[in-house]
Amino acid sequence: MTLLLDRSQATPQLHALVVGVSAYDHLIGGGRDRLDAYPLSQLGSPVPSALAMLDWVKAYTHPSVTVGSVEALLSPSQALNGWGPAPIPVDDARIDALVNAISGWFDRCNQHPDNIALFYFCGHGLMRTGPALLAADFGETPKNPFDQSIDFDNLRLGMGSCKASTQLYFVDACEQSHQVLVTQLALNARVPLPPDVNAPPRSDHLVLHAAAPLEKAYGVANQPSRFTSALLSSLKGLGGEKRNGRWSVPTSKLGDAVVRTVDRLCAIDGAPPQKATPTGSPRGAIICDLGVTPPRVPLAVQVLPDAANHVAELVVAPAGGPPLVVRPPQPGPWRIEIDAGIYSLMARFPPATFQSLSRDDIWVLPPGADEIVDIT
User: Collapsing DSSP states into helix, strand and coil, what is residue 105?
Assistant: First the structure.
C-alpha cells in the first residue's frame, strides 16, 4: 500500500483512500491477454481525477478535524511530489493492493468516532446486483474476471462496523450492465469488508455516484472527469452554506451541489447528460471549512423573448450598491461567477425597443442561481 501521509492518532481526523485506474492490463489496448468478452478500453480521466482529488485533500481544512492519513493507488503507477522530502512511488491499483489498502483504511478510520472516512474511486465500473469497481488487473482470471473487482455495496456496508461517524464515498465510474452478466450471475466480486448486520447505524453517510444505475459516466481526455470537476467545485464552495459567520460544506448540501454542477457542466459543453446520483443518510456534518469569504457562485441570466435578449444590456449590482458587472447586448444566456450574496438585476434596452426592467433581491447562493428576465 502507498501511504502518502500517515499521522494517524486517536483524535478526530480525516482518513482518505484515493484510487485512479486509467490503465487496464486485459482490456482493449492493455498489452496483455485480452478479455474479449468485455469491450472496455483504456481511460484518460481517472489518474488526473485522482490527482486532483489528492490536491484537495492536501489543502484540507476543518474546524476540528485534521488530516490523519492519505493513501493512493494509481494505474499506471507513478511517483508523486509534494508529500515528503522526496517523490513517493505510488502502487499500482491491482486487486490485492486495493484489498489491502481498504483493510488498512478501515483500521485507521476506526480509531475515533469523530473521524471522517473518505473513499474515492475513478475507473471502470460495471453494474451487477450492485456496482463492481474494476481493478487494474480485471480479467487476470478469465473464468471469473470479477475476482479482480470490488463489490462496492458490500464495501460500504462493511464499513458500517467502523467507528467513523462521517463516511464519504465518491464513485466516479460507469454503472452499466453487460450481456455477459445476464448469463453469468455467479461471477463474484471481492468483498474486502464483510458486512455486519449488527453494526450500529452511522450518523452521517453520503454516497455520490457519477452515474445512475445502468447509466454512463463521462470523462475528459487527460483531464479530471466532469463528475470529479463538479465534486471538487462543490467541496471548494458550490456545496457551501454559512454557519455562525463562516462558510463550510455539510454532507446535507454536497449531493445536490454535485448533481446541479454536473448538469450545468454538461449543458455548457454540449455533452451527453450524466445522472450523478447521491444516496446514503447525510445529516449535515461539516465536511470541510471554507472560511469567512463568500464562495464564488455561478449566475446564469436569460432574457425572454429571444429578440429582447439580443439587445439587452444586463447589469448586476450588490443590493443598494453601484453596478458590479455589466454585459453589453449579445445573443445567448449570460453566465458569470460572483461572490455569494444578494444582488439587484437590471435589463436595459435601446429606446423604442423594450421597456427596461429591474429586479431586487436576487439571491445568488451555492450551488448556483438561474434567473429568467421575462419582459413579455
Answer: helix
45-68 tens-digit pLDDT: 999 999 999 999 999 999 999 999
Locate 134 and state its grid cell.
474494476
User: Which three cell numbers, joined as nine digits, stand for 203?
Assistant: 450518523
Choose among 277, 59, 9: nearest CA to 169: 277
Check residue 99 and give its pLDDT: 97
Cβ atoms < 10 Å from Cβ of 294: 18
pTM listed for this prediction: 0.94
Burial of 248 (0-12, 13-18, 19+ CB in 10 A): buried
What does the pLDDT look like over 90-115, one tens digit per residue? Answer: 999 999 999 999 999 999 999 999 99
Which regions of the chain are under pLDDT 70?
Answer: 1, 178-187
Question: In sequence order, which ranges of the chain are alpha helices (DSSP H)?
Answer: 46-58, 95-109, 152-158, 179-183, 226-233, 251-269, 306-311
242: nearest Cα among 83, 374, 365: 365
pLDDT of 128: 74
Distance (Å, whole) CA 89 – CA 135:
18
CB-based burial label for 287 (10 Å; 0-12, 13-18, 19+): buried
Half-sphere exposure of 226 (CA within 13 A, CB side): 25
CATH classification of 3-291, choosing from 3.40.120.10, 3.40.50.1460, 1.10.3730.10, 2.40.10.120?
A: 3.40.50.1460
Structural domain spans, the chain? 3-291, 296-374
